Amino acid sequence: MFARSLPAALLGLSVSALLSFSVATAQRPASPQFDIALVHGNLNSPTEVVGHPSDPGIVYVLLKEGIIQPLSSTPQIGRPGGPIRTIGPIRTIVRPLLDLTAVVDSALEQGLLGLAFHPEFASNRRFFVKYNEFVGPQMFSHMVIDEYRMAVGTPYWIDASFTPVRIFCAATLEQHHMGGGIHFGADGRLWAPLGDNEDPTSAQDIFSPFGKVLRFDVDVNVGQQAQCGVFQFYIPNDNPPLGGVPYIFSVGLRNPYGWSFDRTTNDLWIGDVGQNSRDEIDFMSFPSVGGENYGWPFCEGDLPYMGGGCGGGQTSPVYAYDHVAAGGAVIGGFVYRGTDVPSLQGHYLFADYKFLGLDEILRSFPAMTPGSPTSHGNSLSVALWEPVAFGENATGELFILDHRANPNQGRLFRIIPAP
After folding, report:
1. Rounded CA gap, 195 and 204, in Å?
2. Which of 160, 195, 291, 327 is geometrically suited to a Cys-Cys bond with 352, CB 3.0 to 4.6 A?
């Protein structure tokens, strides 16, 4: 069944990184206290929020249909001697940064899913988007990553003279498990975890890009247009030599919808949605040589699932929880490194999309001692609906997107100090 699997010699790489999480020798800090403040409402099926790389007053909200909407704000986080409850003023820029509705396939779990700014964005204006490209009626989409340029002197308009460049393209076979956003790491590479596209065996197949952590070098072959299914450009010279798709850095993921880098330690955190029983938080310490195998489909979280290979050298999750009793779809978040909420400093904040109780919707644990999270839902002054994504601005402050059944009822919140 797994004839084209990851070489056995590489299955256990970076497992030793987990030894740094010694709960027995580390004292857990006090539980953080915080609240949320509404930044913007009436968002049509938001999927991701990304901060401007240098201006903390600007964030970009991605809408599933194919819109990147800038939101401009001058945060006023508190009043002297008064409670902290609002952020504003908020101004929506009427014209989106990018409108891809004509080419995005937004059926089911597809759509516009990721945005990342180049580390040297201030000088080169390069940014990258991940989305499902519409191919045709009764046909499955292409998963693509394209490069665009922003106009000089404005955070709101693209450079209309620049022809978009295709970095990556792979044909999908289903409409689920696409993974989430894209980010640049401290290594200067573009990282893009993909879901298994509803084919569990793909997560261990080194000739499929799905179910993997992908890693690109967008500073080689600049301007070359990638063809679908042809993986010849933007290949890092330091990815592990697995012998398959050259962008693969790690394997064994099901649907890594929410993931992030810790801006202080550069470690990687992944929220991977399970199948029937367990959701999980996965971890990769920085630096890593790659080759981590997060177990799917041999393991679902910390339990065996398929093929009898669970426990055979995979990188175990740092936290796993019951998919049925405590939730249904983990939304990976961020390690908080801002300054507005000191008690949250160094804590990993995450959520669950299909929570079964309000208190469990938003949870955190110290990044140095993961597990046994603190629940925060009942302490919030505003009740969250269904969380879909976390984001971070230029100074490390955190934002949360939620929505409910009505697609026009998405909202953007900011983490603020407790009253």
Report:
1. 12
2. 327
What CATH number did the domain enclosing 322 receive?
A: 2.120.10.30
SS3 66: coil
Number of domains in the chain: 1
Q: How far apart are CA 2 and CA 30, in angstroms?
A: 45
Q: Return all residues near 279 (Cβ < 8 A) that are at least 6 apart.
A: 271, 272, 273, 301, 320, 321, 323, 327, 328, 329, 330, 352
Supply the pLDDT for residue 287.
96
Residue 190 lies in a domain: yes
Measured CA to CA, the distance from residue 259 to residue 16 in angstroms comes to 21
d(CA 360, CA 380) in angstroms, rounded, equals: 12
Average pLDDT over residues 47-70: 95
pLDDT tops 80 at residue 5: no
Q: Is residue 173 part of a domain?
A: yes
pLDDT digits (tens, 9 = 90+) for 224-277: 999 999 999 999 999 999 999 999 999 999 999 899 999 999 999 999 999 988
